[in-house]
Amino acid sequence: MITKFLLPEDRIPTTWYNVLADLPKPVPPMLHPGTREPLTPADLAPLFPESLIAQEFSTEAEIDIPGAVIDVYRQWRPSPLVRAHRLERSLDTPARIYFKYEGVSPAGSHKPNTAVPQAYYNKQAGVEKLTTETGAGQWGSSLAMASAYFGLECEVFMVKVSHQQKPYRRALMETFGATVHASPSVLTDAGRAALAADPDASGSLGLAISEAVEAAVKSGGRAKYALGSVLNHVLTHQTVIGQEALLQMELAEDYPDIVIGAAGGGSNFGGLVLPFLREQLRGGRSVRALAVEPASCPTLTQGRYEYDFGDTAGLTPLTMMHTLGHDFVPPSIHAGGLRYHGMAPIISALKDLDLLEARAVPQTACFEAGVLFARNEGIVPAPESTHAVRAAIDEALACKESGEARTILFTLSGHGHFDMQAYTDYFAGKLKD
Amino acid sequence: MITKFLLPEDRIPTTWYNVLADLPKPVPPMLHPGTREPLTPADLAPLFPESLIAQEFSTEAEIDIPGAVIDVYRQWRPSPLVRAHRLERSLDTPARIYFKYEGVSPAGSHKPNTAVPQAYYNKQAGVEKLTTETGAGQWGSSLAMASAYFGLECEVFMVKVSHQQKPYRRALMETFGATVHASPSVLTDAGRAALAADPDASGSLGLAISEAVEAAVKSGGRAKYALGSVLNHVLTHQTVIGQEALLQMELAEDYPDIVIGAAGGGSNFGGLVLPFLREQLRGGRSVRALAVEPASCPTLTQGRYEYDFGDTAGLTPLTMMHTLGHDFVPPSIHAGGLRYHGMAPIISALKDLDLLEARAVPQTACFEAGVLFARNEGIVPAPESTHAVRAAIDEALACKESGEARTILFTLSGHGHFDMQAYTDYFAGKLKD
């Protein structure tokens, strides 16, 4: 009985996968927020180094992972693919449940997969400082860690409700040497405007992005901005998850009928799913791809597919995506990483092409699943990850009903060690759906 | 450049190592607290199942690991042995630094190595419930997890100062389904007596042990007690760490000149060190074994080697060990797992035999080392583990001074995700030495 399917370091993938090379029709281009003309690489130069901009516009299928990035990945990658034997027995299901566990990274989630290359490329370009936003703190702590590795300063705008709910995430970022501000802050025009409108504003990812972008643009070239999800290059970096999972399913002598991920901005979901969709798009085995989002922020299931801003203040390019509107402020649910009004253009296009399914689930059902998972598999999932756990359990229960022995694979994108207040609130009956 | 030395699941050791088989002279027996006669297995029957009592008295070198225990170990074992390349470069040392990372267990520390077999053997014996104490919460959460796996109830007496400082550790235990009380509590005679003497008592491990033992003894046979360190069988279970590390040092084509562990009760330290000492005791390579303890609870460096109780109330057997006195209440340092007045009899005997070195370090120096480690290796060490990090760094700096390329191996016994308040206090200058 094998439980975890491990690969040695020398099988860390040497390329990321860019799904733009294989899509049946192109993803609509981003538009300049001022001219509404298709965005050019030059338009992004104030925000990102050239190498990342090139990746953002690339339609090459394979993008080389730099050796210096692989050298950092070595510490925890390839991450384990684990067979959830005890959970299966507890559900009494004929399904086989596997999870790809990204919580083994030092920052505790999948986010370092892109934080490390982003820090590396910025360092190569002579950038001294990175600015960013963070919701639950997974992205901020990952970029803080990667910045420490490459000797960069790091300034994080943290959505105020998370800043209050998760002081230990903040402490983690500070341990890595980052500077952390609650957003909205008084440090930017966007933040001051939000505070003027509502001094008690709990913040949103969209607003924190506005602040971080503004801080980079006004740095006089010292600082660039780093985004933890949504953009093409971010999703591409995350495909290291699925690239490994394909090799590990081979080791397991199995193949998923369904691949599942929680979807906030789309990078965790895309990271697992895109390499499996490549196989399908190129004539290989097809797979059900299921994106799971919170019922309180139902971007893919209820948003409109149209051009919208990525941030609240309208500083970012316009992106064709599923969106609830850039001024949508989602309720203060504990899955802070899923509180985003939009969705990655790649994921949105796949949804539009009927290449994936989406499902919205209420948060109490997610925590119920998280507790069941913890009592069987030991790992307490991050609130974001409980969305994938919920869907995986529901699919396994459907298999029990139908008697089908399907293979279910999901990303457990992170652990919940910095989110225990959420579990405390769940047990106390304080969570609302 | 290899960073982590991994073993596949089928190389999880199948035996634990019992150093009592190889010691040059026997460890003095425990004494009955009433009669002061050498303890018999029957004396321990109210507390532990027969199988664990047999292990406690065994002098066999190899103890079989049950298959059901290995099946649980599979989820995270063999744990990685990691070469700290970035830390080495940052210190500019010729030393090679390796750490055996036990924080990959779902509970985040080495403690499940013994929690899982203890839960298993109790379940086999028909026990329905386990009682225990916990300091920082690493042990309590590990036993809570193991109890959930084997369908046992779990009741934890948590030292009050930790109960207050670490609410999220408590939430973790509750997520696993355990019941948690602050100790001293009003639930036991020992707790009530302590509260009568000082209503504001911050508690100690010794007192929490008294409470947990009392709760088991008065359960009418439903419950047994589980101890997370000190006892022979606990140290034996932890040797899975060193058994693996020996194989992994072979993979690395290297061998440690010095092995280092933090020492509270002694099980983390013994877990790594004992298999290396076996090689030495049997005529193989010798190794410096260094136990690191807090300056504020200097059991090995300043305690007396004499018979003493393991708990405050004098309910446990008398044990020949290094002790600060069973009524010693250490200051409320953040390394709660190291706040214990005594030391494992095996470790105490090794110290008496000059088979190991001991060193006491102040906590601010430990946190300084923890931050340096985090900024280079990403992992934020538990406060307990920073003691080993401090000593490893100091040994590496000594190598820089002398120009010697020694090999240093330490256990990073757990991560500090539930201890971020300690780092916050450290940065705020609030920690005292």
TrEMBL record, chains A, B:
Tetramer of two alpha and two beta chains. Pfam families: PALP (PF00291). It catalyses: (1S,2R)-1-C-(indol-3-yl)glycerol 3-phosphate + L-serine = D-glyceraldehyde 3-phosphate + L-tryptophan + H2O. The beta subunit is responsible for the synthesis of L-tryptophan from indole and L-serine. Belongs to the TrpB family. InterPro entries: Trp_synth_b-like, Trp_synth_b_CS, Trp_synth_beta/beta-like, TrpB-like_PALP, TrpB-like_PALP_sf. It comes from the Bacteria. Pathway: Amino-acid biosynthesis; L-tryptophan biosynthesis; L-tryptophan from chorismate: step 5/5. Its cofactor is pyridoxal 5'-phosphate. Keywords: Amino-acid biosynthesis, Aromatic amino acid biosynthesis, Lyase, Pyridoxal phosphate, Tryptophan biosynthesis. The modification N6-(pyridoxal phosphate)lysine is found at K111. Residues 75-414 form the Tryptophan synthase beta chain-like PALP domain. It comes from Kitasatospora purpeofusca. HAMAP family: Trp_synth_beta. Gene3D superfamilies: 3.40.50.1100. Its EC number is 4.2.1.20. SUPFAM superfamilies: Tryptophan synthase beta subunit-like PLP-dependent enzymes (SSF53686). The lineage of its organism: Bacteria, Bacillati, Actinomycetota, Actinomycetes, Kitasatosporales. This is Tryptophan synthase beta chain. The gene is trpB.
